[in-house]
Design brief:
The complex is a heterodimer of chains A (about 650) and B (about 400). By secondary structure, chain A is α/β, with parallel strands linked by helices. Chain A has 21 helices and 17 strands. In chain A, the strands form five sheets. A five-stranded mixed beta sheet of chain A has the order 2-1-5-3-4, with helices on both faces. Chain B is globular. Classes of the chains: A alpha/beta (about 650), B alpha/beta (about 400). The structure holds flavin mononucleotide, iron/sulfur cluster (SF4) (4 copies) and FE2/S2 (inorganic) cluster.
């Protein structure tokens, strides 16, 4: 497993048959190998690997690719598909390369006649029970089963082929659709949900050829504790899991001449969408995408970074007010404050820690803030009837589809955001419009929200919201430039991919004055002089759980002031709507693209975003966390609990 | 209802003095106990035939992970079709099984023992609990067992829930931990990473009982019985078309023909050795030996009389596996269903020679690439029946 998804063996709920197993050499004579290297010979190539390395990894290191299906770089070993079998000298049976740790010198052959026959049989068997046609499948051309069949020369159904659907499609969720007919029972979704996310919605049920992936009491996905994160989609090798596609509805809106269709684009899709067009992960497509979106027919293209900056002002103000109330007025307030911009995380908390709802920032996510602003401020400014505006949100996320359908998200008097579109869905729309994205000339974002800051961009990576908030809070409170504390305003301690990060920031000096925007809320910063700001970052809900349990137990994190939680490993760049496949390397490359875009921004801090400041001047005139802002930019939550009726 | 006692021969277990094995073990060093079990060449009686001394040695050398203990687990899941000898041992010689487990605990340094009992044997539970209580009262379990300071060990029962695959030791451990009974990847092996991640020895009921005999009478005695590679006696569960079905004790190395004579199965058409996952031996091969080096078995002997329809036999076994595969890995989950389909096609006379060849190739894949012993051995019966009774089977095909 990779660093950002690795689970503590002791806390993992996955059974041993489905989780990483620590391999220690048995017997005293093996002690000499500890920390040492073991020699392997793979297809005649000699190589040395650290004790416990799998045959699969050892082969990769010498440039030999062993086909896999149930293996995934983010997940613990399953060893169930048997696609990766190899011959190990002196062993009767073939061994699964993904699950076989090298603990003694081994000689391996990876493509003997027996091996090839076994692999071909595995594919033949999977296809024999696989109901679905590639043409009508979301994963056509992006399907590991399809690729395996092709690479292994499958040209007929050796063991027959089902011709009737065995299972109904579950379309109950706003975010995730399950089509069990296409499931190959690799259990990547199970391992993702239970280990990476610690939600545990999916499990194998039934035995033998009746085995299938099920939910609690076989309830529809929309009715269980699924947090809509879509991480299972991103790791499913086939079309058995996919997002609830909104592209048809969006096309219909575009086709309707009466509709004014605007799209906001979040930071992460631009760092990922190139992958759908054959580009290397981490190739930013921000400005090419603007042009393509116009060609597709969107009337306006806005940058969600704008509302990310708005979120920072609202959420940052909320935090400062909580601190002020707690430290000066001695009022009971819930601290630490939790970020609320990840709808997967929000639903996770609503299910598993509903007693902590008061800690969630009441600020809406950037997506929802933007929707509300478009249907009010923007509509008025341009004299468009908000009922004729269709707001589309391009998001790296499947949970955003659920979020925009939350019943309380209608503060503008309309559905604030009409459709959430994933990166994958937009890529398909762009292709449908006959556009090759990388060939597009660059285009700008539209006014009046055009200018974005680097702080908004980095929302896409884990730690980004925290960094953006700190840039603003530090400057407002201390009066000093962030650059004087952190080189280039890069707050490195909150960056990176460690599952949980904890950072302390001393505030030795405070600014003499409070900026006018906040002066009516907080008269002076003196109460923070000499204080130490304690913040933390967690990504992937398994890591969120660790922090929450620590808070419950009164540990270190309960002393924090502000904690960023992202449901997805890596943050939004690893969201459930991003291009497939995903891996630690891919997520790192996407994050790099985002930090590069931040570094290239003229304005790097949310409170310096001129469009945001203008919005407060012209529209939210009673300031952040004021009356109108409360109506349009803040929300409330639902205690859901984890017991399903 | 308590099944009738089906013992057909005297068992050595009856003549070994109670607790003499444990008494001997308490006077020996751990290494010497393991040495004795190794020297006698006792191989596991659950079916796989792994040398018990080697297993114990590995578990003894393995390190306990923080705060835990080692475990001794007795596999009383007895799910292989046609075996019932563990039931008889547990009914009549429970003390000896627990005695053997206690010797194992002493040898590897375990403090907790678990007997995993097949769900259908729940009627034995009160009896077994009573025996355990008596042993605790007699200082044969608990603290400072038999007066040996610092040697503490206790045993509890854990009921299975009816899945055959839970007899596979790693699935058994998963089941003990409260998970779906699904075999784990190996390595690591239970001797290193077993129950709760701790070194765990899993042995068959009968294996533990023989350990007691070995320590009581010495490795020499045990080695003098059987063949060089398959020492000692073995219990056989004999069923099917014979006059005297029941549980027999024979030395390993007995030929199929000799065995048939003793059980009144003369004239059999074939014998299924090793249960559903075993091999079907035709009359022409009745000279073969029942031993690990030839026909290996956990004890199940099913006699198939002259009137048996071999396709019906094959179908029965394949239906069993289609029911019992855990469904985890592709070759077994989907493969058994294909084999059953093939048998049905054969029965209807609709299986082409070509497709039969595809199925036999699939059998090879299942034997080689399945994750656990279930899928690796489930095609055995089909393969041997096709091999030895081709005329009977293809007769139907040709008829159409
Ligand atoms: C599908 C399957 C079922 C098994 N069932 C049993 C069983 O019921 N009883 C048993 O003792 N061993 C069973 N085994 C063998 C065990 O995995 C294991 O090898 C055995 O308990 C070890 O004990 P032994 O060395 O004393 O034979 C089974 C193996 C497989 C693959
Ligand atoms: S899941 Fe893959 S193989 Fe199946 S229909 Fe879809 S693209 Fe084709
Ligand atoms: S969307 Fe997330 S929570 Fe829901 S089933 Fe998939 S991984 Fe689990
Ligand atoms: S739904 Fe997808 S990820 Fe889950 S088991 Fe099926 S094929 Fe694998
Ligand atoms: S061989 Fe069969 S029983 Fe064993 S793991 Fe595979 S599916 Fe399960
Ligand atoms: S990839 Fe190794 S068993 Fe599935």
């Amino acid at each position: 497993m990779s660093a950002d998804t690795r689970q503590d063996l002791n806390s993992s709920r996955a059974p041993m048959s489905q989780k990483a197993q620590q391999v220690t050499p048995s017997g005293s004579d093996a002690a000499g190998y500890i920390g040492g290297l073991v020699s392997v010979n793979i297809d005649g190539k000699d190589h040395k690997v650290p004790l416990g390395t799998t045959i699969l990894e050892a082969a990769r290191q010498v440039g030999i690719k062993i086909p896999t299906l149930c293996h995934h770089p983010d997940l613990c070993v399953a060893g169930v598909c048997r696609m990766c079998v190899v011959e190990v000298e002196n062993q009767r049976a073939l061994q699964a390369a993904c699950a076989y740790p090298v603990t003694a010198p081994l000689k391996v052959k990876t493509h003997t006649a027996k091996v090839r026959q076994a692999r071909r049989h595995v594919i033949d068997l999977l296809l024999s029970t696989h109901y679905g046609e590639c043409y009508s499948c979301k994963r056509n051309n992006n399907c590991e089963l399809q690729t395996l069949a092709q690479e292994h020369g499958v040209d007929f159904y050796r063991f027959g082929h089902v011709t009737e659907s065995q299972y109904p499609i579950d379309r109950s969720s706003y975010s995730v659709i399950r089509d069990p007919d296409k499931c190959v029972l690799c259990r990547r979704c199970v391992r993702t949900c239970i280990d990476v996310q610690e939600v545990g919605v999916l499990e194998a049920v039934g035995r033998s050829d009746k085995t299938r992936i099920g939910t609690y009491l076989d309830k529809p996905l929309g009715d269980v504790v699924c947090i809509n994160c879509g991480q299972c989609i991103n790791r499913c090798p086939t079309g058995a899991l996919h997002a609830n596609d909104a592209s048809d509805e969006v096309w219909r809106a575009i086709d309707d001449p009466k509709k004014h269709v605007v799209i906001q684009t979040a930071p992460s899709p631009r760092a990922g969408i190139g992958e759908c067009f054959g580009l290397e992960p981490g190739t930013p497509m921000t400005y090419q995408m603007n042009t393509a979106l116009k060609l597709c027919g969107f009337n306006k293209v806005f940058d969600t970074n704008f509302s990310a900056d708005l979120t920072i002002i609202e959420e940052g103000t909320e935090l400062l007010m909580r601190l002020y109330k707690a430290l000066v007025k001695n009022e009971p307030v819930a601290l630490p404050q939790f970020t609320s911009c990840s709808p997967g995380w929000v639903k996770y908390l609503e299910h598993f820690y509903p007693e902590y709802i008061p800690n969630l920032s009441s600020a809406k996510s950037p997506q929802q803030m933007f929707g509300a602003v478009i249907k009010t401020y923007y509509a008025k400014l341009n004299n468009i009837d908000p009922k004729d505006i269709v707001t589309v949100a391009l998001m790296p996320c499947s949970a955003k589809k659920f979020e925009c359908n939350r019943p309380e998200m209608d503060s503008s008097g309309f559905k604030d955001v009409d459709y959430g579109l994933t990166t994958r869905e937009l890529a398909q729309m762009i292709k449908e419009a006959g556009i090759n994205l990388p060939d597009m000339p660059k285009g700008e974002f539209d006014d009046p929200f055009g200018t974005a800051t680097g702080s908004g961009v980095i929302f896409g990576a884990t730690g980004g919201v925290m960094e953006a908030a700190l840039r603003t809070v530090i400057e407002l409170v201390t009066g000093a430039k962030v650059e004087s504390l952190f080189e280039n305003a890069n707050i490195a301690p909150v960056r990176g991919f460690d599952g949980v990060r904890y950072v302390e920031l001393p505030l030795p000096e405070v600014a003499p004055d409070v900026i006018p925007l906040l002066a009516h809320l907080i008269p002076s910063w003196d109460f923070l002089k000499g204080a130490t700001l304690k913040v933390a970052v967690a990504h992937g809900t398994a890591n969120a759980k660790k922090v929450m349990e620590n808070i419950k137990a009164g540990g270190q994190f309960s002393q924090c002031h502000f904690i960023e939680f992202m449901a997805c490993p890596g943050g939004c760049i690893g969201g459930g709507g991003q291009p497939i496949p995903t891996s630690p390397e891919i997520r790192k490359a996407r994050a790099r693209a985002i930090y590069e875009e931040d570094a290239a921004c003229e304005v790097r801090k949310s409170h310096e975003n001129p469009a945001v400041l203008k919005l407060y001047g012209d529209f939210f005139t009673d300031g952040p966390c004021g009356h109108l802002s409360h109506k349009l930019l803040h929300t409330h939550y639902t205690a859901r609990g984890k017991f399903i009726g | 209802m308590t099944p009738v006692n089906s013992k057909k021969t005297p068992f050595t277990f009856e003549s070994v003095e109670p607790e003499s094995g444990l008494r001997a073990a308490l006077g020996m060093s751990r290494a010497d106990i393991i040495g004795e079990v190794g020297a006698c060449n006792l191989r596991g009686r659950g079916g796989a035939g792994f040398p018990t001394g080697t297993k114990w040695n590995l578990a003894a050398a393995a390190k306990v992970k923080a705060g835990g203990t080692k475990y001794v687990v007795c596999n009383a899941d007895e799910g292989e079709p046609g075996t019932f000898k563990d039931r008889v041992i547990l009914s009549d010689h429970a003390d000896m099984v627990f005695e053997g487990m206690t010797i194992g605990a002493r040898a590897i340094g375990a403090t907790v023992g678990i007997l995993y009992l097949r769900s259908e044997y729940v009627y034995l539970r009160p009896h077994l609990e009573q025996v355990l209580e008596r042993r605790r009262a007699g200082n044969l379990l608990g603290q400072d067992i038999g007066g040996l300071a610092g040697f503490s060990f206790d045993i509890h029962l854990h009921m299975g829930a009816g899945a055959y695959v839970c007899g596979e030791e790693t699935a058994l451990i998963e089941s003990l931990e409260g998970h779906r009974g699904e075999p784990r990847n190996r390595p690591p092996f239970p001797v290193d990473t077993g129950f709760e991640g701790q070194p765990t020895v899993v042995n068959n009921v009968e294996t533990f009982a023989w350990v007691v005999c070995v320590l009581s009478r010495g490795a020499h005695w045990f080695k003098s019985i059987g063949t060089e590679k398959s020492t000692g006696y073995k219990l056989f569960s004999v069923s099917g078309d014979c006059r005297e079905p029941g549980v027999y004790e024979f030395p390993l190395g007995i030929t199929v023909g000799e065995l048939l004579e003793k059980v009144g199965g003369q004239g059999a058409k074939a014998v299924q050795i090793g249960g559903a996952s075993g091999h079907c031996v035709p009359a022409s091969e009745f000279g073969r030996r029942i031993a690990f080096e030839d026909l290996s078995t956990g004890g199940s002997i099913i006699v198939l009389g002259p009137g048996r329809d071999m396709l019906a036999v094959a179908r029965n076994f394949m239906e069993f596996f289609v029911e019992e595969s855990c469904g985890q890995c592709t070759p077994c989950r989907a493969g058994n269903a294909k084999l059953l389909g093939g048998v049905e096609m054969l029965q209807r006379g609709e299986c082409s020679m070509n497709y039969l060849q595809e199925l036999l190739a699939l059998c090879e894949t299942m034997q080689l690439a399945s994750k656990c012993g279930l899928g690796q051995s489930s095609p055995n019966a089909f393969v041997s029946i096709v091999k030895h009774f081709k005329d009977e089977i293809m007769g139907r095909t040709l008829a159409h």
